[in-house]
Amino acid sequence: MEEDNIILQAVNITKKFAGVTALDNVSINVHKGKVNVIVGENGAGKSTLMKILSGVYPEYDGTLLLQGEPVNFSNPKDAMSKGIAIIHQELNLIPYLSISANIFLGREIVDPLGLLDFKKMNAITKRLLERVECNVPATTLVSSLRVGQQQQVEIAKALLEDAKVVIMDEPTSAITDAEVEVLFRIIASLKKQQVSIVYISHKLDELFLIADRFVGLRDGKMVGTIENAEQGTKDDLIRLMVGRDITNLYIKDTLPLGDEIFKVENVSLPKPSNASQFLVNNVSFSLRKGEVLGVFGLMGAGRTELLETLFGLHSERMSGSIFIDGRKVDIRSVKDAVANGMGLVPEDRKKDGLVLSMPIYKNVSMASLDQVIDNGFLNNRAENGLAKQYIADLKIKTPSQNERSKNLSGGNQQKVVLSKWLATTPKILFLDEPTRGIDVNAKNEIYHWINTLAKRGLGVLVVSSELPEIMAICDRIIVMGKSRITGEFTKNEATEDIIMNAAIL
Ligand SMILES: Nc1ncnc2c1ncn2[C@@H]1O[C@H](COP(=O)(O)OP(=O)(O)OP(=O)(O)O)[C@@H](O)[C@H]1O
C-alpha cells in the first residue's frame, strides 16, 4: 500500500489509565476511502484508540500522522476542524434544539449585521440531510427524531466540516434494520467521496457486508490485519480477535423441563397518553423451571415494555394477572418483583443497570444487600467477596473489584449488570438484549451461563433482536408485533422465515 493511500496513522501509541495499559505500542493505518474495521474482544482497547484518533484523549505516548504530518488534537472540536469526526455510541445531540441548530452549534453563521443567518443555516442543513437520506425539515426538533435519524444528523454534522475520516463506534447497536440499510448506503456514498470510515462493531455478520479491511486489537496490542476483507472468513476474523478458534460454540442442551414457575394472563399496558391504545396488549404465556423462553420482535413491538410491566415498573396502568409457582402475586414495584424472586437485566445498562460512578463491588451487591449486611451494618468483606466471585465466574476484565464501573469497557459493564442480578439468586430472570455490545467470545460465555441457570431450575425469559441468537439459546420463542403476541414456536419449529413473518404481521 502506497503512503498516499493512507490518510491517518497511529504510530506506537501507548495509553495508560491508573493500573491499566489500555493500549500498548499500537500502530495502525487508516486507508483512504475505505471502511477500516477495528475488531477485538471487550476491553481490547478499541474505544480508547478511537478516542485518541478523535481528540477525546489528547494525552498519550506516540504519534498521530494526518496525511503524513504529525498532529495532536487538543479536543474533539480541534480534531473535527482538521477533518476527523466521531459518531459515539451514545449520540450527543441536544434534544430541544432543531436539527439545524444542532449542526451549527458553536459554529453558527451570522449575516453582515451580526445576526444569526437561519435561512442560510437551514439551507445548508437541508443539503446535508439529503446527503444522509434523512427526509425531515431542517427545523425539526431533535427530540422528535428516531434514534436512526439522530445518527444521520450526527453524520450530517460531521459532513459540515468536510470530514476526511468518520469514526463510528457500534453505530448499529440501537437502530432498526431499515435504518441499518440506510446507514450502509450512506457509508457507501461517503466512500465514493473518498471519505474514510473507521468502524467498530461486534456484529460479525454485518461487518462482512461493509468492511474493506480488518485491523485486530487484542489486550491493548495490534495483532494483525486482514487487508482484503472479501477474502477473510468469519473464522479468520474470530482468530484475529481472540487469537484462537472458538471450539466450544454454543448449542443449547435440551433439558427436561420442570413445573410451571411463572404465568402471565391477559397482561395489558395502555399508553400514558391514550388509554385506548396499548404498549402491551393482552399478553398471556407461561414459563417452566429450566426453560429458556425467547421474546422476539422488531423495534417498537412492545418487548421491553412487556418485561418492564411484569417487573412492576408500570403497576399503576397495568392490568392482568401474574402467577409465580401457581400463586397469584401482586407486583407493584421493583422491590416486590425482587422479593418474589424476579430479576431483570435491562437493555440500557448505562441508564438503568449501573451506577457508573460507583465501584464494581457496590454495583454487584446493590440488589442483594441482605446478603452483605451483618447486624445492620454493611460487611465490606462480604461485598468484596461477592464481587470477586462474579469477576472470576464471568471473567470480567478489571484490575480489581474497586475499579469504578465507568472505567470498564462496554462489554465488561454488561457483565457487571448481569452479576448484580445473578447475586439476587432469582427464580425467574428476564434478560433484555443481554449480549448487545458483547464480543463473540463473551457472547458464547453468556450463552453458557444462561444454560447453567436453566440447569439450576431458573425460568429465563430472553428478549433479543438477533434471530440467530434467539434460535440458538431458547427452548421456545414467542414473537411480538404491534404490542401483541403474534406467534409461538418451539425450538424445532422455529426458522428465521417463520419468526420474521410473525414479527411483521
Ligand atoms: N477512563 C478509564 N479509566 C480506567 N480504565 C479505562 C478507562 N477507559 C478504558 N479503560 C480500560 O482500558 C481497557 C480498554 O477499554 P476500551 O473501552 O478501549 O475497550 P473496547 O475494546 O472498546 O471494549 P468493548 O468492546 O467492551 O467496548 C479496558 O480494560 C478498560 O477497563
TrEMBL record:
Record domain ABC transporter: where: 8-244, 262-505
Molecular function as annotated in GO: ATP binding
Signal peptide: none
Pfam families for this protein: ABC_tran (PF00005)
CDD domains xrefs: ABC_Carb_Monos_I (cd03216), ABC_Carb_Monos_II (cd03215)
Keyword field: ATP-binding, Cell membrane, Membrane, Nucleotide-binding, Repeat, Sugar transport, Translocase, Transport
Superkingdom: Bacteria
UniProt-recorded name of the protein: Monosaccharide ABC transporter ATP-binding protein, CUT2 family
